């Protein structure tokens, strides 16, 4: 298959400095239309910085980000790009006195502008999205009174209303309990659009993603399928942990069991000797 035709996003030789420190170092990858990509890496590896470059919040010092074969800085304006990209961040924004309906309606802003009145067709779209994320009974509730998981689902509903081609999520599950973590990622996956999300839960990323990118100290050190990327060597080299990688009993994707209280080198050698499930 010709990847040039199926790539929605292409990042080439992207580098970015902040305070004269190199934060992102010569990063190149492509994202296929309709795929779900996970960005992994230890604290401070550059995941959020990379995502900020993708949603046009930060301009790289060198290299390019192409969306639909067009450079997002040279050939798109901010307004046009905002129509195509939806962003869900880990810290939910404060929306004082806005109902769930009002927050979800904000997804229409990039298409309509601030002072356009809501029409019946808009209301239908908003209600459908709220139903899709399972919040129909909270429609008129104050957004601030939702639980963390419900807030994330409302923000995904806002993204659904926006009808983007690409959904970018920066650690969308970091404050959620395990049920909401799975629910929020499965919901994003069910939209059938291209999704890029950063993760700290490597097993969740392995289960949900088609492609993984691993950052370490600003460099892209691994990329490929979960099968190719999630290995005990990578976990030792990048995350500094001892772990055994086996197959998940349900989906047969790599599943990590962490070891505790061992010296990394000693345990990595030992775990290699263990039979994989
Ligand atoms: N605007 C900035 N000015 C200076 N340093 C920055 C800026 N943005 C990011 N950094 C630095 O870049 C490095 C990468 O930060 P980033 O938030 O991208 O990492 P991350 O992989 O998302 O980390 P975490 O998993 O902890 O959220 C950190 O050392 C951070 O302090």
Please describe what this structure looks like.
With 277 residues, the chain is of the alpha/beta class. The chain folds into two domains: 3-223, 3-Layer(aba) Sandwich (Rossmann fold); 231-277, no CATH class. Helix content is 36%, strand content 26%. It has a six-stranded mixed sheet, sandwiched between helices. Strands 2-1-4-5 form a four-stranded antiparallel sheet. Strand 11 (243-247) and strand 12 form a beta hairpin. The chain is globular and about 60 Å long. The model has no long low-confidence stretch (mean pLDDT 88). It binds adenosine-5'-triphosphate.
Q: Architecture of the largest domain, according to CATH? A: 3-Layer(aba) Sandwich
Q: For the record, give the distance between the C-alpha atoms at the N and C termini, rounded to a whole number.
A: 33 Å
Radius of gyration: 20 Å
Percent strand equals 25-35%
The biggest sheet amounts to: 6 strands, mixed
Count the domains.
2
Can you count the beta strands?
12
Which term fits the overall shape? globular
Topology order in helix (H) and strand (E) letters: HEEEHEEHEHHHHEHEHEEHHEEH
CATH superfamily of the largest domain, called what? P-loop containing nucleotide triphosphate hydrolases
Look at the helices and sheets and give the structural class. Answer: alpha/beta
Output the strand order for the largest sheet: 6-7-8-3-9-10
**CATH class membership of the largest domain:** Alpha Beta
Total helical elements: 12
**Low-confidence spans:** none
**CATH domain topology of the largest domain:** Rossmann fold
The molecules bound to the chains, other than polymers, are: adenosine-5'-triphosphate
Helix content: 25-40%
């Amino acid at each position: 298959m010709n990847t040039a035709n199926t790539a929605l996003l292409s990042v080439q030789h992207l580098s970015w400095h902040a305070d004269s420190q190199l934060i992102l170092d010569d990063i190149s990858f492509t994202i296929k239309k309709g795929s779900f990509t996970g960005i992994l890496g230890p604290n401070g590896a550059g995941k959020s910085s990379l995502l900020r470059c993708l949603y046009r919040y930060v301009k790289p010092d060198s290299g390019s980000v192409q969306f639909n074969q067009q450079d997002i800085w040279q050939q798109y304006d901010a307004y046009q790009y905002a129509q195509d990209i939806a962003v869900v961040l880990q810290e939910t924004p404060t929306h004082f006195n806005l109902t769930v309906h009002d927050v979800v309606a904000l997804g229409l802003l990039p298409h309509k502008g601030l002072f356009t009145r809501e029409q019946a067709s808009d209301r239908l779209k908003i209600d459908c999205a709220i139903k899709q994320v399972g919040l129909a009974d909270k429609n008129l509730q104050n957004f601030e009174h939702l639980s963390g998981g419900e807030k994330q689902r409302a923000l995904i509903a806002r993204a659904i209303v926006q009808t983007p081609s690409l959904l970018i999520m920066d650690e969308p599950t970091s404050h959620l309990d395990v049920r909401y973590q799975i629910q929020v990622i499965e919901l994003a996956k069910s939209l059938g659009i291209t999704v890029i999300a950063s993760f700290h839960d490597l097993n969740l990323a392995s289960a949900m993603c088609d492609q993984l990118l691993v950052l370490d100290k600003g460099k892209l050190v691994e990329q490929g399928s979960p099968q190719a990327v999630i290995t005990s060597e990578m976990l030792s080299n990048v995350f500094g942990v001892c772990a055994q990688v086996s197959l998940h009993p349900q989906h047969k994707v790599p599943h990590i069991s962490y070891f505790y209280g061992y010296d990394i080198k000693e345990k990595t050698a030992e775990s290699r000797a263990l039979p994989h499930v």
